[in-house]
Design brief:
By secondary structure, the protein is α+β, with helices and mostly antiparallel strands. 50% of the residues lie in helices and 21% in strands. It has ten helices and eleven strands. The strands form three sheets. The chain has a five-stranded mixed sheet with strand order 1-4-5-6-7, sandwiched between helices. A four-stranded antiparallel sheet has the order 9-8-10-11, with helices on one face. A two-stranded antiparallel ribbon has the order 2-3. Strand 6, helix 3 and strand 7 form a beta-alpha-beta unit. Helix 1 packs parallel to helix 5, helix 1 crosses helix 7 and helix 8 runs antiparallel to helix 10. The longest helix is centred in the first third of the chain and has 35 residues. The radius of gyration is 23 Å and the shape is elongated. The protein starts with a helix and ends with a helix. 29% of the residues are buried.
Length: 309
């Protein structure tokens, strides 16, 4: 029996648990965020006319990258909205290669914050064996991490009579028995029941605090805009979006040739301490970025005002 054949049942079981975690846990958490903020949540478990089977977004280098979840402002089934947050999810039965997984997923997410100035949160929703160094690597890259230990996941499944773990020394026959048992007992009702057990084991407050953390990050408001024209060198600072917009739309009191040659650095400083910046922009590119940031800022300013009215 080949090595690939021996490992096939273990891979199948991992896929079963991973799909359940993404469909039941991650979808529930992020759907609550989307509902509370009035956003569109895109993921592979919902069909969408404006895309194929994958949730693809283009990065600065022109690469189409597939993400598990994207929160959008103004998105519908027919059209993409403004991207606000990107998420990856995974389940790991074993701790082996945890740092490689952390490096791959964080590396996949990071370009989106550089590409789209409206991207407020990059996140990983994970469960299983994920080592401390791997977790620290993710967090050091400015990526939000939600993590549930393997023991809690296994216990939730055991509570409905399904085993999802086995000894590392288990034979292919033992792995196949565990996988086949999971397949035979798993339906939509059971998936929901497992999630209910997980909430009881972990505590509802853990899930609620995560939802509030993502809401706070996504709904952060820009406090300041800095626009630096390289031919001048010093940043011009604005606390008002419209003033910055007027500055970019004006002739900047220079001749036509100088305007065409000028390149800009654009910075938006947000209330959660994060800074978006892009350099070497034409006047038109800087204005386009600023307009998009403004659309999101207006939406969330109104959202916060409505909450406190």
């Amino acid at each position: 029996m080949s090595k690939s054949t021996r490992s096939s049942s273990g891979h199948k079981l991992g896929q079963i648990v991973g799909d359940w975690f993404e469909e039941e846990v991650a979808v529930d958490l992020l759907s609550q965020v989307a509902s509370k903020l009035g956003l569109y949540l895109d993921h592979r478990f919902r069909s969408r006319i404006c895309r194929g089977s994958k949730v693809l977004w283009e990065d600065l280098d022109g690469n189409n990258v597939d993400y598990d979840f994207v929160l959008e402002l103004g998105g519908t089934d027919n059209k993409k909205g403004i991207p606000l947050a990107y998420f990856e999810t995974f389940w790991r039965r074993g701790a082996r290669h945890s740092k490689d997984k952390a490096r791959d997923d964080s590396g996949k997410l990071m370009p989106m914050k550089i590409t789209y100035p409206t991207t407020r949160v990059l996140g990983i929703i994970s469960a299983g064996d994920f080592t401390k160094p791997a977790q620290e690597l993710v967090q050091s890259r400015g990526i939000d991490l939600f993590y549930i230990p393997k023991s809690h996941i296994c216990k939730a499944w055991e509570n409905v009579g399904i085993q999802v773990d086995y000894e590392d020394s288990a034979t292919e026959e033992e792995k196949r028995r565990v996988a086949d048992n999971a397949v035979s007992k798993l339906d939509k009702e059971t998936k929901t029941e497992i999630f209910s057990h997980l909430v009881s084991i972990v505590g509802k407050a853990v899930f609620d605090s995560y939802i509030q953390r993502i809401i706070a990050g996504v709904a952060a408001i820009p406090l300041e805009f800095r626009i630096t024209k390289f031919l001048v060198g010093s940043p011009v600072i604005f606390s008002n979006h419209e003033d910055a917009k007027s500055y970019l739309k004006s002739s900047l009191e220079v001749g036509e040739i100088e305007v065409k040659l000028s390149l800009f650095r654009y910075q938006a400083i947000f209330s959660d301490g994060n800074i978006f910046q892009r350099a070497d922009l034409s006047k038109e590119e800087a204005l386009e970025l600023h307009e998009t940031v403004g659309d999101v800022a207006k939406y969330f300013s109104k959202h916060h005002a409505d909450r406190h009215s």
